[in-house]
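Lab channel / #folding
Pinned by the channel admin:
"Please post every new chain as: sequence first, then the structure tokens as a reply. Keep commentary short and put observations after the output so the thread stays searchable."

First post following the new format, from NK:
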Amino acid sequence: MRLRFHSDVEDFASSAASWYTRRPMVHTIELSLLREGVPSDEPPLLMTVWDRAGADAELLGAAIRTPPLPLLCGGLSAAPDDGVVGEMVGAGLILPGVRGPRETAQSFADQWCAATGAVAVSSAGERLYRLGTLTAPAGVPGGHRVARKAEEPVLVKFQCEFAAEAFGHVPDPARAAATLTAAAAAGNAFLLWTAEGAPVSMAGVRRPAAGVSRIGPVYTAPEVRGRGFGAAVTAAACRWALAAGATQVVLFADLDNPTSNRVYQRLGFVPVGDSITVEFRVP
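Reply from TO:
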């Protein structure tokens, strides 16, 4: 088995894109990154796994890491964990964590901790949903629109509040603003639900990659929750995605948030599988 580390995104995509499109819903994050660019303050880790060296080698998997985020390991499900981890450790790689489908991520984490002495100190769980038949909520006051340039300040505010609530940290507002610029350049959109002339809820939605459009983040201001605004803006994002040509619409929901999971299921989303994030610490 051989690992190949790619310094060029296009070179990586020439091998990995077809691998990821075999399961486009599971690999929605990776496919979005390949289409939109791989943002990172540091050089990303772009890795493919082959059964052997040489021109006739068979691809066994792929992985992406954009520092400071964990390794996206979903593309390694068919690769032997012990061999991959051994090669990565031998190459001197250091990982802060791993994210992917539960079985794949947990197996990788177990091997990584065994090989490095690191400790898996925490894990967060998410459920991947796909849209079945959309059932939009009725009677929600207000309406939606694609956010305009002048509304970037409220989008930045909502994104920072979402990150603080979901991940426990507030991002640099300048970085949040940069994500809006990148989203617009990629043909993605942020939808706002407004009520009584004020924005109350937000949903990001991505242009389809390999037929799959992903919704997120979805955020409603705390003082107006429980009125259906989050469900309504999510339904609007679904319609936007379908109109953009998506054959599948997906989103991730925090397993520790039963309210959001119930809302998405009422909208017509059905579970695909669970993903986890495992963080590594050196004792």
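NK: Residues 152-167 form the longest helix (16 residues).
TO: also worth noting, The chain is about 35% helix and 30% strand.
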